[in-house]
Amino acid sequence: MDKAVGPLLIATWGNTCLVTVEVVLAAKYFSRFTDPFVIVAPLVSAFALDATSTIADYITVYLYTISHWGDSKFMLYQPVSIPVYVASTGASAAIAQLYLTSRFSRLASRGNKIAGNIVALVLVGLTVVSFAGALWTAIFIGMYPSYVDRGMLRRPVTIWLALSAGADVAIAASLVWQLLGVQKMHKVEVESHIAGFIRSVIVRTVETGSATAGVAAIALGMYLKEPEANIATGFAYCLGRLYTISMLLSLLSRDSEYHSKNSQPYLSQSSSAANGALPSHRLSKMPAKYGRSGGMVNQIQVSHVATVHVEDEPISLDPLQTGKPSRSKLENQTYRIGVDVKDAYTDVGV
Q: What predicted TM-score, i.e. pTM, was given to this entire model?
């Protein structure tokens, strides 16, 4: 009984904690960002699948511990809620993995497109086959619900969990490869929040990829060791929530200063006279979208994406001609980094 019902009960507690984290992150995301339908739709679908999986988890525990407690015959079979949780968990994983693969593809499109397309196809292939393994597992459990027949699930479960873990590791490694390539390709000094953004994305990618891959690998190991116990099922109970949380963390990695729906481009001022000051009458004529300042201009935010820091060089603005700030070679390179990373990794636009 300890290995049959105990792991499921404990897993529902952990699952409840993860759902709470997911709800908090979702509220934060929807309150700060307004993304296109192609981003919101998969995210809402993941929420629906997580709700389905969580309800199925609770139903399973309720049936074992309340409705059929002491019914030894019922304890020998898996209720229909278990294949429901398997299928919904596999679908949640596929949504998160395809989203992150699309981010990799957008980054790769700015470099070696052939290599990027090949890697993207491999990642999609791993995701699709893993999801097929989850559906195969769910269908097989529905057809053969007895715990005695669990040994027959070895092949579909291995395909599902092993390829899911493999896809997580491959996606994380591919994203890190592309992000490091951005830093290597653009050998310019950028403002700290751009470099910091790249570093934070790399760290978060490794952390989330390691978490989901690790849980999937542990669940597979537990199943192969004791196929008739529910220890593996307890670990897999939390997989769907971890995938959705990783997707939310990816979306929330955008700096709210530049990507929140209330942000506006601005010019910041400095009191140092070393960089040279713009006359106040020129500043008063600047378009409102660039902001006004009675001091000196030493950095520009371009299209909510990049901030250029120019040392010892005044920046001229001529709104009568173009209405846009002129850019030096350094500014253009920095702007490109901002577009490559912030737009490609988290946004759909461009």
A: 0.72
